[in-house]
Amino acid sequence: MTLLPSSPGQCLVCRKDISRKSAEVHLISHKKKKSPKPSAYLIEVTAEGHPEYWMYLSSLPDATLEDIDLLLKDIWMGDDHISSFTIEGEEYTSYPDSSGMKVRVGKVFRPGMTCTYTCNYSSPTVLHLVVLDRQTAYTPSNSSICVVARNSRISYDCDICGSKADFFCDECYHEGGTPLICKHCLLLHECSYEEVQVIPDSPLFGIEYFAEEPDRLVRWYPDGWTGDEIISPELYELLDRYFEKYMEEDEECDLQDSDEDEDDEVPSVPGRSGSLPPGVKYDRKDTEEMKGTITSGSVTTLIDLYIKELRRSYGIEPKTPPKQEPLSIDRYDTIRRRIDFFSRLIIHRRSSRGVFLCWIVWQRI
Predict the structure, then answer these.
(1) 301 and 351 together in one domain
(2) N or C end of the chain: smaller count of CB under 10 Å?
(3) pTM for the complete prediction?
(4) Reduced to 3 states, what is the DSSP secondary structure of residue 16?
(5) Residue 317 sits in which domain range?
(6) Which of 116-130, 175-189, 242-256 has the lowest mean pLDDT?
(7) pLDDT tens digits for 282-337?
(8) Are 146 and 191 found together in one domain?
(9) Where does residue 90 fall: left (phi above 0), alpha (psi -120 to 50 degrees), or beta otherwise?
């Protein structure tokens, strides 16, 4: 995993290529448009220990620290952790019962000052913010804060063929495999689907899971940008194909396991299809307890409620539930395993596309 030394960037206002050194001069050179809004602060943000990641913000004085916190979490940090600003010795946190981040930028920021932003106290990532002396000529039009420049996506080489990598496998990263994968080699990969993601433009890359969501990124960009311009939809289409491939291979393994189990001559439990592992003995009392323990309805109760709520929110009329049949041990184990996989997908994929993929998993259960 070799990091290229250069750290180029782009002005998101005029879309010209710039560098971190030239960003400040370029941003203040934009022709100032007449606006009733006050001049905006120009704020430089860099990641401690990762100088290749940087961005510039344009913030009106009436923006709040909470606005900056939401922007940083959507673009770099993710929204799963408590965060805080430390400004001139005073801390402003994002605790749910705290109003610390409700303070307006104009009350705590002044040109030339610096402050720090910390996210995830258990494994902290620290960002440094500098309020520059000169103000940006670009004023956010539809909100009080936006990103006006940031580093270009860092280029990595595919560990398999050497071409440009677009995906990252967390399982390979921790087990010494090939974590960096290009779009041509993705379908040849064999790790679990939930371990593979599009390489994020974030200092959390390689440290903690963070999945960029174009719909959340674009709301902090200047007017005229679309989510597809930030991250190519082709990459998500490839992930969909990898997901389908993974599910097909998983089904084939289940069928093979089921065929092998059928060949084993093991006594069946009366009143229940399937068989017990070799060497396990049971009596009538055990049989009655097992018959009452596993029912076809109890396995899917929680997941049924989730699907019912999904259907209701999308205005889909509920279907008449099919007649449930007694579950075999193999079928029971398969359902438990896939429900666990389904739950992890829900956690990692919050977008509408992610919900659609989760629905595919449910149909296959």
Answers:
(1) yes
(2) N
(3) 0.67
(4) coil
(5) 294-364
(6) 242-256
(7) 444 444 444 444 444 444 566 666 677 667 766 666 656 555 566 667 776 677 66
(8) no
(9) beta
